[in-house]
Amino acid sequence: MDGDALVGFVMAFFDVPFTENSHHDRPRDGLWRLDITEAHQGKGYGRFAVEAVGDEIRRRGGTRVTVTWQQGEGGPEDFYREPGFEPTGGTSDDEPAGEMGLPPSPRPRRYPLLARRERPCRGAMAAT
Q: To the nearest whole number, what is the mean pLDDT of the chain?
């Protein structure tokens, strides 16, 4: 939310095996879904969401972020490749997977929604 405007939606996963029924797959952390409304794209909300999820993964002891994306014209591959996600060669539900290592956090940040679920969403996606 930015004021009263809904700008997007993000869903993350933590410590989840990426391939169902595989005992050899390491648990992963990452972005499950990210959707920023068309009117709010290009304004930093998506980047903010990716960074917030990365910070939460780092807080939980993780060192990598995993993401999948739909391929095709207008798809988000360039958005994910720009900050450093690299294709792994794997897929999930026929979507290519990418991973990015998490650099050490330059400074502690607070994300009220991640720390306290009971707080209202209003203003949670404001730019940092």
A: 82
Q: How far apart are CA 41 and CA 38, in angstroms?
A: 5
Please calculate the CA angle 119-38-79 and round it to the nearest 5 degrees.
Answer: 90
The pLDDT tens digits for 19-61 are: 666 666 778 999 999 999 999 999 999 999 999 999 999 999 9
Parallel, antiparallel or unpaired: strands 27-36 and 8-17: antiparallel
Which of 37, 68, 51 minimizes the C-alpha distance to 102? 51
User: Alpha-carbon distance 71 to 73, whole Å?
Assistant: 7
Give the Cβ contact number of residue 116 at 10 Å. Answer: 8
SS (H, E, C) 35-63: EECHHHCCCCHHHHHHHHHHHHHHHCCCC
On the 0-12 / 13-18 / 19+ scale of CB atoms within 10 A, 40 is: middle
